[in-house]
Amino acid sequence: MPGLPGAPAAISSYGCDADGLICGYRLHPERPAQALSQASEALPLHPDSAAADGSVLWLHFNLSHAGAEAWLRKHATDLPESFFEALHESASRSTRIERDGDSLLAVINDVTFDFSFEASDLATLWLALSPGLVLSARRRPLRAVDRLRMAVRRGEPLGSGLELLTHLLNDQADELQRIVRQATQRVDEIEDALLAGRPEAQTAEIASLRRLMVRLQRLLAPEPSALMRMLSRPPAWVTVEAREQLRRASEEFALVLGDIAALQERIKLMQDENATRVAEANNRSLFTLTMVTVLALPINLVSGLFGMNVGGIPLAEHGRGFWIMLALIAGLTGAIAFLALRRMRR
Asked: Which of 3, 93, 160, 308 lies 20 to 30 Å from 150, alpha-carbon distance?
């Protein structure tokens, strides 16, 4: 699809090419980004191959494509082995930015493009950064990466790998803030329903929201130890300004995570309040059942005794025997009810 006049050219489709490349750009701080239509246009691939004129090469791959990892292993020979090890980690991957030799490795978790407030709608982005090369890969479409692509196509000046990473973290923080805002609005509605005495329909949704907040906080919070080690001993090509931008982006991200923690605590208090209300309702139901059982004790006892088919049953031949027994049962029931009510008042 042709782009607007003066805007950088876009790749032909959102899908990937034969090597799994979703998009590729040559970025320069003083020139519009140059889009690559296929991975072969980036060859030969070397961390310093695109840095001679101050530009940086960004390649974004789809790991669901069978040839993506094979292409990276064949052509990105300078990638550290830890990058490929990170691609095959377990499902629970923490967000982190760490140094590996002269490269930076980043594992960033973000919400998927079709996020629908489900704890499973989180996916991972892997990045490897060197002076003139940024390689990123994912298995599911992510919102933050899509916003970064749109920023590059709009012509925003992103002339280094650290600027790409900082922009990605800021976009992720913005998207996370939007999620927290929507979740807070939903929690407000549920809280109003609970205060109005209608907790039945919201119990499952409260639990779902809490699971979501816990998963967001666990997976999206960057590991502070890895980030501090990287910022204290960065590669030589990382400038002081880039380090400061990355630190500010991390601090902004920490503020959003603080909002998530506060919302998580609020949801926990709502769950406790709802559990208290349910326990009180159960106690009332149990007390009512107990009182009915106690009040029915005289009639059950007397009917059981007089129902035995043996001789000598009192009042069996008396003309008013039924009414005498009825009065006796009523008296015993009244006495038990009086004792129970007096004990409750105490």
From this structure: 93
